[in-house]
Structure formats: structure tokens, C-alpha cells
């Protein structure tokens, strides 16, 4: 296993230590799919044949969403296990939040094929924030270079499961990978409009696998 769940839980606890209470909700994504509570947008979603708690997105043109129909989440911390592929330009996998409709949302996503990159320019493109459709990765890279994407220190194997922790605040998003205590990315959000709809995300021509979703919210 490429990550240590105990260290992840410690990190989550330290991040919210100043709060009065934690509320954790574990989501079995496979069960959600069985119950038809994940709405597929531009993808076919199936339960993984080798892991009934995981789901699989097929690869096809355009971005894809798996909207969690009965789930609300606006601010807090989430953890999620993701598996992409070492296919240059064909593996973009992540999590969408503030979903206002099927084409307007924020997302954090990863490019697993860059986890093994040697060139500095590709190494800096491992993890990305976007706000579609206004702020695509291309627009952000051209106009605000290196502000919304970054390198992951000690990156995972691109063909294996890895775990991410994403802290979503009113104005900022912070991303951790595996057992790292240092964030891989911290950005200022590019919209003031907020929705509590969330989902799983894959990019152009990308398949992806997801499991082990947990939401941790703060009760003041």
C-alpha cells in the first residue's frame, strides 16, 4: 500500500484541532453506484470487477462526472483513493465540487502520467485546480503560470492507488497526497458562487477508478 491511513487521520485531526467537533461520513462508492445514486455525465460508470467498493469510469472524449446525487458538501475536508494510468495526455482523474450544473464546477485533479516525469516543466504539472468553463487548465497555465498547478513531492506510482486529502474552505483549497504533511497545492478559489453538489471527475479521453471516500466536516 502506497499510503498510511493512520498518518492521514492524524493530519486531518491536526488541521481541525481548533474546532469544537468533527463529523466524519464514510461513503462506500460501490454501494452508491449499486443504489443508482451516482449520476453519470459523459461517462459509463461500473463497479470494479476486482473491488466491489470501487467504481470505474470509461474513457471517452470530453470531461466526465459522477455526481453524488444524495450527497451535500460545501466546506470541510475529504479523503479519496484514486487510480489513474501512465498514459501521457490520457489520464486526468480527480474530484469535482461546487457543481452548479454539468458544465460549471470547480475541480482538483491529477495527471498520473506526470508522476514519473523527469523534465521540470512536466513535473510541475502533476496536480491542478480548475473552475470550468471559465478557467480551464490551458487558460490558467497561459495567464497565471504555475499558480494553479504544482509538483507532488515523492509522487505515487502512476499505475497504483493513491490517496488524496482535499481541504475546501470558503476562499481556498489545499491538497495533500498520501502521507505527506506538506501540501502539494494550495490555491485561492476563483469563484464566489458556491454549491454543495460534489462528484468524481475524469478528463478528456480518461478512464479512472475511485474508492474510499470520506467527508470530514467541522461543527462549530
TrEMBL record:
User: According to the UniProt entry, where is the signal peptide?
Assistant: 1-24
Q: What is this protein's name?
A: DUF1080 domain-containing protein
Organism encoding this protein = Spongiivirga citrea
The taxonomic lineage of its organism, from the top, reads:
Bacteria, Pseudomonadati, Bacteroidota, Flavobacteriia, Flavobacteriales
Any idea which UniProt keywords this protein has? Signal
Lineage, top-rank taxon, reads Bacteria
